[in-house]
Specification:
Blueprint (H helix, E strand, L loop, with lengths): L2 H12 L5 H9 L3 E3 L4 E3 L2 H5 L5 E2 L5 H11 L6 E4 L3 H10 L4 E3 L4 E4 L7 E8 L5 H13 L2 E6 L8 H4 L2 H5 L3 E6 L5 H6 L6 E5 L11 H8 L6 E3 L5 H18 L2
Parallel strand pairs: 3-4, 7-8, 7-9, 9-10, 10-11
Antiparallel strand pairs: 1-2, 4-6, 5-6
Helix pairs in contact: 1-2, 4-5, 6-11
Pfam families: AIRC
Organism: Liquorilactobacillus uvarum DSM 19971
InterPro entries: P2CMN_synthase_LarB (IPR039476), PurE_dom (IPR000031)
Length: about 250
């Protein structure tokens, strides 16, 4: 716990906003804060460069509220993923400073002091992939990256992709998101000279098999320089892309 956090705990006790017992718990544990239902990792950003993120699916609105309140003591940005609208509405009643995005199903608080670096291009095969793409885009932005969105440029109308190639090639990292058979990843991988992170989605007709078909296509891509995350994992793709983007950006400072 740094001096600023220590002073805040002492002030909260003085203002009777925190009990002495609760303050002792905060002071006695330098790595996580204990809640009845969660342990908040207060030093994750110091260890990894990225703050803890809330996975909202399976958590109640009350639990998300409690976790956010605890996280605000140790980090300036907040990201909760996979939060459906009804749950978000309940959270916002208690925490109106958060912003909800219905497409990506994220709750966020952005660190206004964090400088955006580099550029991550997020490319989707179809409009139906945008939900996963927006989870990636919001995550990347919260982590301090510039993001360029290029949506609906799949191989069924490949001229649409070629029209955006100059923009895509300017990015340090490219996230390609596709359902159906997932062919867009191989095409993009053969046209750019930066890392490509592939995200298979569960979008498609019967033989898409809930995303297994594009997952296997991407894993078996003949284009080099492609890494693949799990089905519908926009968050994971953005996390990896952010790490790569920041390394590249630091090299050019």
């Amino acid at each position: 716990m740094d001096q600023g956090q220590l002073l805040k705990v002492l002030k909260d006790v003085a203002d009777q906003a925190l009990t002495p017992a609760a303050a002792a718990g905060k002071l006695g544990n330098d790595s996580f804060e204990e809640l009845d239902y969660a342990k908040i990792d207060t030093t994750r950003a110091q260890r990894t460069g990225y703050p803890e993120v809330i996975y909202g699916s399976g958590k109640s609105a009350k639990q998300i509220v409690g976790i956010v309140k605890a996280m605000k003591d140790s980090q300036k940005s907040i990201l909760a993923t996979r939060v459906e609208q009804s749950k978000a509405d309940e959270v916002l009643k208690e925490l109106p400073f958060l912003k909800y995005d219905a497409v990506s199903q994220t709750l966020t608080l952005k660190d206004k002091e964090r400088v955006e670096v580099g550029n991550i291009a997020i490319v989707t095969a179809g409009t139906s992939d945008i939900k996963v793409a927006e989870e990636a885009a919001v995550t990347a932005e919260i982590f301090g990256n510039q993001v360029t969105r290029i949506y609906d440029v799949g191989v069924a109308g490949i001229h649409r992709l070629f029209a955006k190639l100059d923009v895509i090639r300017q990015a340090n990292v490219v996230i390609v998101i596709a359902g159906m058979e997932g062919a867009l990843t191989s095409v993009v991988g053969g046209l750019v000279d930066h890392p490509v992170i592939a995200v298979p989605t569960s979008i498609g007709y019967g033989s898409n098999l809930g995303g297994m078909t594009p997952l296997l296509t991407m894993l078996n891509s003949c284009s080099s320089g492609i890494s693949v995350v799990n089905i519908d994992n926009g968050f994971g793709a953005a996390y990896n892309a952010s790490m790569i983007n920041r390394l590249i950006s630091e090299e050019h400072i």
